[in-house]
């Protein structure tokens, strides 16, 4: 073999090794944009890069879009870790798009509440944050202060109630909880629809987006809305006298999960990222920044932050996760029934 050929082969081999190492030291994830992505970087991404020396490439993609991309890229996925907030990990795991997780490879798994890691072996990643749905209320004007989901039906609040359209994910969970306390379940939403009709007859209004809720509280004398703890914090930061309470009958929850994508070469690094996501430090940071509820039992929060989230053994006992797969299967029919109910 000629010397030049030897150098060529040696150089090519070195390049291949270098490229492989570069790939192994980079993971690609999705995040949800805006304030969430800013917190994601501060609480997890940047600390992970500093700790491991790896790089994290972030693709802004909400749950439904990220899931669609994962499905479309089944043979050659771009994501190493994928995040969902709508239960997409259940279907993705069933379709073999996610890898099972060995809990022994996650140093923080032992401290995570059981409900947040129940199906790791099936491929459903752990929940690292929870959006808790309860009653967002004006702490100065709501009298008496609400404590129950049934309080929404109280005449004391009548025309001061804001309802959120069920095309909004938080709105859907709030409606399903109202349906449950009214005697319905996921096989029968008519009690909830009847309750909505009564509320509208008493003067409640329906909005579709978070900014509309803020407008109602700021300008139109809204007292109570069934919505998420993180948005109560957003309203308070905007200068509004708003507080959050979990209804005594239970707290609908949107699980934000971190999942290991199947068919990727650097799963060990991806698992380190997932492990950091469920660490007490990362979760305390998310609670502080956005008021998401932690799933790690070792998280320590100030009284101020703890008041806004489902916190500790007692706080998480009331969390309710309505079956995301059943919601998705019935969504179109439920939205149609909802639209007919609210048509005035």
TrEMBL record:
Keywords: Periplasm, Signal
InterPro entries attached to this UniProt entry: SBP (IPR006059)
Entry keyword Signal: yes
Residue ranges the record marks as coiled coil: none
Gene Ontology CC: outer membrane-bounded periplasmic space
Keyword Signal: yes
Pfam families: SBP_bac_8
Name listed for the protein in its UniProt record: ABC transporter substrate-binding protein
One BP term from GO: thiamine transport
Signal peptide: 1-22
GO molecular function, one term: thiamine binding
